[in-house]
Write a structure and sequence with these properties.
Two copies of one chain form a homodimer.
Chain A: E1 10-13, H1 15-19, H2 29-41, E2 46-51, H3 64-71, E3 78-82, H4 86-95, E4 99-105, H5 108-115, H6 119-134, E5 143-149, H7 162-175, E6 179-183, H8 191-205, E7 210-214, H9 222-231, E8 236-239, H10 259-268, H11 277-290, H12 300-303, H13 314-318
Parallel strand pairs in A: 1-2, 1-8, 2-3, 3-4, 4-5, 5-6, 6-7, 7-8
């Protein structure tokens, strides 16, 4: 993993994993590599490049190991891989991922539907993965993050009790993860709820053990939630280029928050992301070309940057 | 004007004015009336129902006086009309508007393009309108709001100096408006800039003289900006049902912030708007039927409410 002392906010691109696993098209390996390389060249420091799941279940991820190996050759890039279980973690470690993330759904109904595992079974996998990681030499040991998914409500169960989310975050830490994250898998979160839950989880696991949130824009609140998270001191925000994938509903109801709009917001606010927004906007063309017919989202790519926009803070310049 | 002691945030619907004047279709008068009535019945307390401009220029607004007279018959509804000049104000007063709003573009280039008037000329109109209003009996005197438009940047001029916005807000107050508003006409604003400008303008004209902002979602930051405004103590937010109109760019780059998404956010945060969100979502069908082929925006209408959503705060219930 890389240190990022020169940026304020780490934008963690999840499109190659969350985006590509949610659409029907299978992106060719070469296009995935071009996407990852171009986005890293635009200044993105962390990319969740794949998920280590059986190709039978998710053919979109059949090239996971090759993608990790390729991404590892890009200087300065933290290569993140999602894994559903111990077996996936073994494969991710073997391929060379810098960091491994594992989802634990607060809704047990969703956990059983998604990973075919109860909470106890998922925690057992985490414990085994943590043991495996501890057996590795310190310099070759990937980081391990546990993400509490459906943390703000579930499409199957409805409301999820906050004490359940807090308890699962604690159990993930006890099982050996380095840090926890909160995922609004269903796009149910609102700014007030998000703030409260960040505070509650931090009170349980420690302030510095929760630094990232994964937000969706399903009801249009994605960037408002991102702002609320920033104000709570969250420093890592997941997003997906073109809001790719994660669209369980009608067109317009996108999934992940859109990287382009998020970076525009952060950049305009004068926050340092390390990302060149004009280069970032140009990466979208790779998706357009490689995924014909797939819906892409985002407002900034359509509208363009404001006239006279200055990188590093439109507001700052307008104040002159 | 109505008092609203039973709500926290006043959602001011601007679709019948800002929405309808920005699209090519002309909505039949009967449909406008049905829309206004249905939205008032859903609990919306204030609607900007029209603009008093020559029908030659904006045939969409040819029935402005009839619409105001009709809207005045709806109990509890504050009827707002936009006017570009003294003549428009005379017509709005005659028709019976509760409140008159006049835009003053911070970008003088935009002011000349929009109203064909310099700053000095617009201020002169405001002064004459204020004099006219003072000549009316107190009980029949509409309120007067001056909106600083393109306050966050202009598509023609680019960055707009903040001192210019502050100065124009002061001049509007001196010319006799009751209050000022800030309009992000171009969708350029970001949360940091918005907060700073709200503070600067309030420092000049008084805290209670700036209570409303008019936001666009052109770059996807609309609700993040709305959240920032709320946190600064703004209590009136303009929005447009279905994000209707105001789309100078490609599809997807909507104009005004979407009433449905805004109300969902406020309602989910536990803020009282007086609006029944399910009834509000149903009003959209009137637009679908009356404006065939026009693009409507919004994520909540597509995705629907969360499973088990409880009005008055999803987060509150989820905390149980």
């Amino acid at each position: 993993m890389q240190e990022h002392d020169d940026i304020d906010i780490l934008v963690s691109e999840v499109g190659p994993r969350d985006g590509l696993q949610s659409i029907k098209s299978i992106m060719p390996t070469a296009a995935k590599k071009a996407w990852i390389a171009a986005q890293a060249a635009a200044g993105v420091r962390e990319i969740e490049v794949c998920s280590f799941v059986p190709a039978k279940l998710l053919p979109q991820m059949a090239d996971a190991a090759e993608i990790v190996r390729y991404a590892r050759t890009i200087p300065g890039l933290t290569v993140l891989a999602l894994v559903p279980n111990f077996k996936g973690a073994q494969n991710a470690i073997e391929a060379g991922a810098h960091k491994i993330a594992l989802p634990l759904s607060a809704s047990e109904t969703h956990s059983k539907a998604n990973l075919r595992k109860t909470h106890d079974e998922v925690i057992d996998e985490v414990r085994r993965i943590a043991e495996l990681l501890r057996s590795l030499p310190a310099g070759e040991r990937p980081g391990l993050e546990g993400n509490v998914a459906t943390a703000f409500g579930c499409t199957l169960e409805g409301p999820v009790p906050e004490r359940k989310v807090v308890e699962l975050a604690r159990r993930l830490m006890e099982a050996g993860v380095d840090e926890v994250g909160l995922s609004d898998t269903t796009g149910y979160a609102n700014p007030t709820q998000l703030r409260r839950l960040i505070k509650l989880v931090r009170a349980e696991v420690g302030h510095d053990r929760l630094s990232s949130v994964h937000l969706h824009n399903t009801r249009g609140l994605g960037l408002a939630n991102a702002l609320a998270a920033l104000e709570e001191g969250i420093t890592t925000l997941d997003s997906s280029l073109g809001g790719l994938g994660g669209c369980p509903y009608a067109p317009g109801a996108s999934g992940n928050i859109v990287t382009e709009d998020l970076v525009f917001m952060l950049d305009a606010m004068g926050l340092r992301t390390g990302i060149d927004i004009e280069k970032l906007l140009a990466v979208r063309q790779i998706l357009v070309d490689a995924l014909p017919g797939e819906a892409l989202y985002g407002f900034t790519p359509e509208a363009g940057l404001p006239k006279g926009y200055a990188r590093g803070g439109w507001g700052v310049r307008a104040a002159a």
